[in-house]
């Protein structure tokens, strides 16, 4: 199902060009070889960090290759995720998401409506008119004393818990390295973020986009996942080969396909990191649309199923988010704790 080798740079919306660096007159999601930061020379490390931060200033998105997560590890996570979503509704519904402070559990199709709106009533109206056509399973750190993950019975989903806990830890470890690269690129100490993220207040989200008749996505505002930016610091996105992710060019407003590249992870800046960096780093709108549909008859077509896994990275919930050094002399935002910001956004998103 998956192949994990890549060697080209994709210039979204334009012909492929085999060169590094950002184009000033167009929008580009660069492909970055992360092994150059993890194991390269000091010069390689610095240049890779600079490349990452430059891309995050311009587009807010990168493709990361040679990231260090083995292909079989990713494949196993996708397999167990697919098995979970094939469970009967009555089994999944027992694990239903309940509280934004927890942010754990199963979210059925139509319950979430991602959007840039922050008013609860506005979001509720959008959800009623054009809900997102996806279902998710939300998983947090498993040792939390206040909030517990909601696991299916091992008889219903063999190896699910073990696989996802291992994947959670693997993603956290990669996230630490990416944050070190960002710190280096911002000319901070490499370990600047280490003690601000070690509590692993992250969210592992398994996503399933079931097949759906194309006509149901043709209404105003309809999408598999509406246009939004992410809430936290970074998102590590693992895509299947179906595609559908689109990123909004901040200069033109046009949505550009983020075509799946085998062997890569899509990494994007979230709203909290944009705020933390005083908007030096860009949190960019993106959405999931339906890929080409298969004709059922002369009047109807159906979209293929799609899977993805998103690891939403957050600072420690008690961390104060205020203007980082080297990110301007005047702060645009008042300080806020991670927990207050994330919980507030989640509370408005769900019914």
From TrEMBL:
InterPro entries: DIOX_N, IPNS-like_FE2OG_OXY, IPNS-like_sf, Oxoglu/Fe-dep_dioxygenase_dom. Keywords: Iron, Metal-binding, Oxidoreductase. GO terms for molecular function: metal ion binding; oxidoreductase activity. It holds the Pfam family DIOX_N. The keyword 4Fe-4S does not apply. Residues 197-315 form the Fe2OG dioxygenase domain. SUPFAM superfamilies: Clavaminate synthase-like (SSF51197). Belongs to the iron/ascorbate-dependent oxidoreductase family. This is Clavaminate synthase-like protein. It comes from Mycena maculata.
